[in-house]
Amino acid sequence: MNWLQELTGTNKAVIAMCHLQAMPGDPYYDKAKGMDYVVEMARQELRTLQDGGVDAVMFSNEFSLPYLTDVRTETVAAMARIIGELKSEIKIPYGVNVLWDAKKSIDLAAATGAQFVRGFFTGVYGSDFGLWNTNVGETVRHRQAVGADNVKLLFNIVPESAKYMAVRDIREIAVSTVFVGKPDALCISGLTAGAPTDPQLLRFMKEAVPGTVVLANTGVNAANFREQLSIADGVVMETAFKVDGKSENKADVSKVSSLMDRIKEFRLGLKG
């Protein structure tokens, strides 16, 4: 049994994204509605996902566009307030993702009790957000320094809206990343949020790093979840749960519960 099964109590876990509205300091923050509105929207989203039966939830600042690679204090503070106000209502395992700053994600996890974080911990990229560098040695040491040793690290291995600066085979990257960074999971994505993860790439990753949890990170939906979950150890989902299948819309409890019922039925027929 891997750590994700132990955490969620199931095989092939579904981690649902709870997207937070733009917050103070973000270009599209609604000052008139203020933070009370942001908190209430997060509360509604969390309730919808939990009532629909997802296995875990991950809070992220999805609407902090355009993203920063060195996130400012006000964003982390706002996210901590939101999660702090909701903590008594969270009934399932939860993680955090401060886009796109791995160290700030760890800080937020340490402050809120989150059990896992997702981020880019390794690699150098040419991205829509400029030249993007990482320092896995510094980041992992930072986790220890802030007392977050038990927080699981989910490494994004296929960058969204970016490309590796070095020309390397993705399987080579996966193997070296696991050897150097010792991630708790690798997240395999499509090109952008909502874009399906290539099933062939998922198979390559499972073969390349058989002892590491591999997650399908984007584009899992009602049409492809069987194929994705037959390969991956779990999935990160969001768009498929939203009204009209659009990332910017609210999650729909009927869509969540309907799809989760189908996923749970599918899991019953699998081993491990």
TrEMBL record:
InterPro entries in UniProt: BtpA, RibuloseP-bd_barrel
Organism: Paenibacillus oralis
Entry similarity comment: Belongs to the BtpA family.
The protein's name in its UniProt record: BtpA/SgcQ family protein
Alphabetical list of SUPFAM superfamilies matching this protein: Ribulose-phoshate binding barrel
Domain of life: Bacteria
